């Protein structure tokens, strides 16, 4: 598939067939997601892959899945055969930027006007979402209101932040998000040449 087609086909899907996904395919997609740029080559991103049905149901509950059922008609987070929880470690970035080659001339760590750890995990998530399309699969994204409980459930260390849940599977007919009615902004509204 051409890259432009992959980008245009990517959308959030909220209904999946129960068909399992070959672990080799999951590894291929995650191998691409780990290859994104990272500040100082910190590589502070990590992923938890969940395929166990009972654990997927628990994760669905922690994401507030019950509230989605009325709108979408099914439990779209837990029904996906694979859930990927992308995580990032802010501590890894601070540790990296306290190494000699990254210290400022006065021997201190840089200031972080932008938390690049979130930028980097965002790039990993987008790469994963595009890899999903390239493999002929579909994915959604759910926030995690119960982050502490998710950490406990999956044994995620306290210095690691899970940033969401990505259900992945073969697409089934779903209800498009009502937010799509807003339409995509025109290119000239989002691109500014030379200056704002």
TrEMBL record:
<protein>
    <submittedName>
        <fullName>Nitroreductase</fullName>
    </submittedName>
</protein>
<dbReference type="Pfam" id="PF00881">
    <property type="entry name" value="Nitroreductase"/>
</dbReference>
<dbReference type="GO" id="GO:0016491">
    <property type="term" value="F:oxidoreductase activity"/>
</dbReference>
<dbReference type="InterPro" id="IPR000415">
    <property type="entry name" value="Nitroreductase-like"/>
</dbReference>
<dbReference type="InterPro" id="IPR050627">
    <property type="entry name" value="Nitroreductase/BluB"/>
</dbReference>
<dbReference type="InterPro" id="IPR029479">
    <property type="entry name" value="Nitroreductase"/>
</dbReference>
<feature type="domain" description="Nitroreductase">
    <location>
        <begin position="7"/>
        <end position="170"/>
    </location>
</feature>
<keyword id="KW-0288">FMN</keyword>
<keyword id="KW-0560">Oxidoreductase</keyword>
<keyword id="KW-0285">Flavoprotein</keyword>
């Amino acid at each position: 598939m051409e890259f432009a087609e992959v980008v245009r086909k990517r959308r959030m899907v909220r209904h999946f067939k129960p068909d399992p996904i070959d672990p080799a395919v999951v590894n291929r997609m995650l191998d691409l997601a780990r290859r994104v740029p990272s500040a100082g080559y910190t590589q502070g991103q990590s992923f938890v892959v969940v395929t166990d049905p009972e654990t997927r149901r628990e994760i669905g509950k922690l994401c507030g899945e019950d509230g989605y059922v009325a709108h979408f008609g099914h439990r779209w987070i837990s029904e996906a055969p694979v859930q990927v929880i992308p995580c990032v470690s802010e501590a890894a970035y601070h540790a990296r930027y306290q190494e000699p080659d990254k210290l400022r001339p006065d021997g201190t760590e840089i200031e972080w006007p932008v938390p690049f750890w979130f930028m980097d995990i965002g790039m990993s998530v987008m790469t994963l979402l595009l890899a999903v399309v390239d493999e002929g699969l579909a994915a959604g994204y759910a926030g995690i209101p119960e982050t502490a409980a998710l950490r406990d459930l999956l044994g995620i260390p306290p210095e690691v932040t899970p940033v969401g849940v990505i259900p992945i599977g073969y697409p089934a007919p779903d209800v498009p998000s009502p937010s799509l009615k807003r339409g995509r902004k025109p290119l000239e509204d989002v691109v500014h040449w030379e200056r704002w």
